[in-house]
Amino acid sequence: MRALRPLVLIGIGGLLYVLIELAFRGRSHWTMFCVGGLCFWLIGLINEVIPWEMPFWKQCIIGAVIVTAVEFLAGCIINLLLGWDVWDYSNMPFNVLGQICLPFSLLWILLSAVAIVLDDHLRYWIYGEEKPHYKLT
């Protein structure tokens, strides 16, 4: 059962990310299920690797760095190498190769906050892991 946890969490995170894209962008792509799910799972590992005593805002920044890194690597493969043009931040300020940009990296801080809390509670409710608690400062 423990071996399936990453797949379950990746599936939940991928589905939620696709739904977010559909709600705000009006479209998505199957690769976003994979990228969103991977990001959700990696963000969920923050409290598995780093003690709960780390302030929540620092966890959110780590989450945003994770998402930005995954987005850049995925974008280089999906958009630049394969040419699928799933997203393009070329018109956004402070972009790198059109694959990541500062405004979205800042948005990932907020989305990471939601992902951290949701992942922690899913692990608590589904798998009986430690009850979530957060240090704010």
TrEMBL record:
Lineage: superkingdom: Bacteria
Pfam families with a match to the protein in the record: ABC_trans_CmpB
Listed transmembrane segments: 7-24, 30-50, 62-84, 96-118
Keywords: Membrane, Transmembrane, Transmembrane helix
InterPro entries per UniProt: CmpB_TMEM229
Name this polypeptide is given: ABC transporter permease
Taxonomic lineage from the root: Bacteria, Bacillati, Bacillota, Clostridia, Lachnospirales
